[in-house]
């Protein structure tokens, strides 16, 4: 199941792959026990959603996001919106997406959103409960209003006893003075943008079809997400 006939994309020659491994180009990749279990679950229950897979594994959906992305890139799984994951057609040759072509939409996580009127006190509690370094501020339609970071909270509350009762809108960085990415942007470009603007995360948005209106927030991508991807790739590459 895991040893699909793979050919060297440059020379067109068959490449031998050790048992229990897959090939990315000429590089063998060893699947983790969790990735093998995901393939087993998909084979038994296809089509199956990411949430259902996570529930069967006893983990959260974000925990297996990079595993699912890797298996799709390796040609082991296919996925369709509102349908779920299923085993890729073995008759079709594996065509892994090079790392440099990985899109934000394949690795983005759910946004943690508060309203502009949320108090600083409630926003700080939300940030720690969700274990994130910052929050996205959006309106009732999900349109981006601003972002607020842990540093913003610290600067605003130190020495200001009444700060916690004030609204987040007073300390957030307002749109359009915010760097964003779209699901179709390259992950490598998102990483470069974080480095350039010295931020820990970026809102993932869909541009508005209505002139003058802010974009819709659909996710976020963070340095933690990027670090997890690097760790996952480093573990799998042999």
Automatic annotation (TrEMBL):
Coiled-coil-forming residues are: none
Q: What's the domain of life for this entry?
A: Bacteria
**Does Translocase appear among the keywords?**
no
Instruction: Please state every residue range assigned to the domain named CBS.
Output: 107-164, 172-238
Q: Which InterPro entries match?
A: CBS_dom, CBS_dom_sf, CBS_domain-containing, HTH_11, UCP026546_HTH-CBS, WH-like_DNA-bd_sf, WH_DNA-bd_sf
**Any transmembrane segments, and where?**
none
UniProt entry keywords in alphabetical sequence: CBS domain, Repeat
Query: Which CDD domains is this protein grouped with?
Result: CBS_pair_CcpN (cd04617)
Supply the SMART domains for this chain.
CBS (SM00116)
Supply the name of the protein.
Putative signal transduction protein with CBS domains
Species of origin:
Alicyclobacillus acidocaldarius subsp. acidocaldarius (strain ATCC 27009 / DSM 446 / BCRC 14685 / JCM 5260 / KCTC 1825 / NBRC 15652 / NCIMB 11725 / NRRL B-14509 / 104-IA)
Q: What is the lineage of its organism?
A: Bacteria, Bacillati, Bacillota, Bacilli, Bacillales
């Amino acid at each position: 199941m895991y040893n699909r006939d793979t050919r060297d994309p440059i020379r067109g020659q068959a490449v031998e792959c050790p048992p229990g491994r897959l090939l990315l180009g000429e590089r063998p990749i060893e699947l983790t026990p969790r990735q093998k279990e995901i393939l087993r679950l998909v084979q038994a229950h296809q089509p199956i959603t990411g949430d259902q897979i996570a529930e069967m594994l006893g983990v959260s959906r974000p925990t297996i996001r990079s595993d699912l992305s890797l298996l799709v890139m390796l040609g082991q799984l296919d996925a369709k919106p509102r349908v779920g994951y299923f085993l890729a057609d073995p008759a079709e040759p594996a065509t892994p997406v090079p790392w440099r072509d990985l899109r934000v939409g394949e690795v983005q996580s759910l946004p943690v959103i508060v309203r502009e009127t949320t108090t600083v006190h409630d926003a700080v509690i939300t940030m720690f409960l969700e274990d994130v370094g910052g929050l996205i501020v959006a309106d009732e339609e999900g349109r981006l209003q601003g972002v607020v970071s842990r540093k913003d909270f610290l600067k605003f509350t130190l020495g200001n006893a009444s700060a916690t009762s004030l609204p987040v809108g007073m300390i957030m960085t307002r749109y359009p003075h915010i760097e964003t990415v779209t699901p179709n942007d390259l992950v490598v470009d998102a990483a470069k943008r974080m480095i350039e603007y010295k931020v820990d995360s970026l809102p993932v948005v869909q541009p508005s079809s209505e002139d003058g209106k802010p974009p819709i927030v659909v996710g976020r991508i963070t340095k933690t997400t990027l670090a997890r991807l690097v760790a996952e790739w480093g573990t799998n590459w042999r």
